Structure formats: structure tokens, C-alpha cells
Amino acid sequence: MVLQVRVTLCLGGSILALEKLDVGCIKEVAQTVHTLKSQKHDVLVVTGGGGPAREYIKAAQALGVSSTQLDKIGIDITRLHARMVILAIGDIAEPDPPTMVEVAVRIALKNKVPVMGGTSPGQTTDAVAAMLATASRSELLVFFSDVGGVYTADPKLDVAAKKIETMTSRELVERFASTKPEPGIKTIIDPIAAKLIERSKIKTLVMGAHEIKRLPEILRGANHSGTTIIPVSE
Ligand code: UTP
Question: What is the pLDDT along the chain (234 residues), one digit of tens a residue?
Fold first, then answer.
């Protein structure tokens, strides 16, 4: 891999806050962002909502509100998590989470680290990360999730599910085609993100939280235990 890359990191809600906020994970992310920046990589970050987002969505569901309102609750939580990551990163991060991908790209071009949550209803932060990676012309998109990769089936439901080491972006689209983007869905990659990854042809990795610290060496070509998604040309 090239010496200096622009990389978009998607910190899944399942690693930042599986049930409640994991401050240790946030500190590790901040440390890794500092290391990457000191090695002259460009870094853009997207944060998920995890357990707290689902808890608030469930509570709002009991109020009988629309899916759009539920999504907006989820978005607010992802932005709160972005703010926590910003606080942990400190001065090299833009002080407020951008609410639009285009703004995040402009921040990165000014050599600051943008950390953002969701943008619009009807998707998850996986799609935001795929859009951000495309808009910023990132060479690499990395998803961190609690299951640490893409599996042949949902590993939480099927004990026979096997982690896939390498797959094409077409196979990724097929794997998640039937997933419905309902408010608070649990999926490794949402179907909108899968399509964006296929279209943009950005190399993508899906890894576990234990690889956060190792990211600088993984960028230099070291092995990882997650899934590598390879773009396919037409
Ligand atoms: P997340 O992207 O955080 O989902 O969005 P998640 O499941 O916690 O993240 P992963 O899968 O671990 O990475 C939480 C909810 O917020 C709303 C959706 O309802 C989503 O399910 N949301 C989020 C949006 O509507 N739009 C967005 O751009 C982002």
C-alpha cells in the first residue's frame, strides 16, 4: 500500500457503545488517529449510535412516531458519540461534528480531522462513511464492528457462520441485498453502503475493535483478521 493514504474510518456503534459508551475504545481511537496523522495520513471519522441509539429509538417507538422521527433520534445519538470522539482526539479534530459530508471533506482538506455521525433518515452511518470515503477520494474505507468482519450468515444467529477473508464488492452487495434499512437495524454493512462501496470502487476493510491500535501497521501492509472487500472493475 502507498506510504500516505486518505482513510475514512467508520466506528460502528457496536464497538463505541454496544450497550453503553466504551471510553477505553474512544481513547484507543483517539490515540490511533494521532499516530496516523503524525505519519501524514489523512483521517476522516464516522461514529455509530449502538445500544444507546437503539434504546432511544425503542422508547420513541412506544410514542408511536414515524420512522423518520425514529431515524432522527438515531442520528442525534450518533452525533453525540462523534462529539465524545472529538473531545478525546483534541485539537487536531474539528470542534463540532459536521452534519454534511461535503463540509467534512472541506475540514479534511484543511488538515483537520472531521468526526461526524449520521446525516439523513433512511440509512445508517455505514452509508455516511461510504459517501464520505467517496466524496473525500479516500484510498481506503475501514469499518470497525463487534463481529470483526463479514460472515457467510449472521454470526449472532447462526453458529455455522464463517468469517469471509476476501470478497468482491459485488459479493458484498449480494450478501446484504435483502437487509431492510429500518430504524435501529443491526447489520454489519447496510445495503445502501454496500452499493456505494461497489460503485465507488474503494478498497474496504471490515475489522474488529482489537485492530484499531494496529491500523498504522495494517496501512503499511500487515495482515489483519477481518474481511477485505476488493473493488471489481466493469
Ligand atoms: P448507526 O449507523 O449508528 O447504526 O445508526 P448502528 O447499528 O449503531 O451502527 P453499526 O451497525 O454498529 O455500525 C443508528 C440509527 O440511526 C439512524 C438509523 O435509524 C440507524 O439505524 N440513522 C443513522 C439515520 O437515519 N441516518 C443516518 O445517516 C445515520
Answer: 557 899 999 999 999 999 999 999 999 999 999 999 999 999 999 999 999 999 999 999 999 999 999 999 999 999 999 999 999 999 999 999 999 999 999 999 999 999 999 999 999 999 999 999 999 999 999 999 999 999 998 888 899 999 999 999 999 999 998 888 788 778 889 999 999 999 999 999 999 999 999 999 999 999 999 999 999 876
Ligand 1 pocket, residue 128 CB under 6 Å: yes
Cα–Cα distance for residue pair 176/114, rounded to 1 Å:
28
Taking CA atoms only, the protein residue closest to ligand 1 atom 21 is 184
* C-alpha–C-alpha distance, residues 180 and 165, integer Å: 25
Q: Is the CB of 120 under 6 A from ligand 1?
A: yes
Q: Find out whether the beta carbon of 124 lies less than 6 Å from any atom of ligand 1.
A: yes
Q: Is the CB of 138 under 6 A from ligand 1?
A: no
What's the CA gap between 188 and 181, in Å, rounded? Answer: 12
Mutate to test the pocket of ligand 1, among 25, 124, 132, 207 (most ligand atoms within 8 A of CB): 124
| CATH superfamily placement of domain 6-230 | Acetylglutamate kinase-like (3.40.1160.10)
CB 123 less than 6 A from any atom of ligand 1: yes
Instruction: Identify the CA nearest to 70 among candidates 117, 13, 122.
Output: 122
39 alpha carbon – ligand 1 mean position (Å): 31
- The pTM of the full predicted model, rounded to 2 decimals, is 0.96
Question: How many Cβ atoms from other residues are within 10 Å of residue 73's Cβ?
Answer: 20
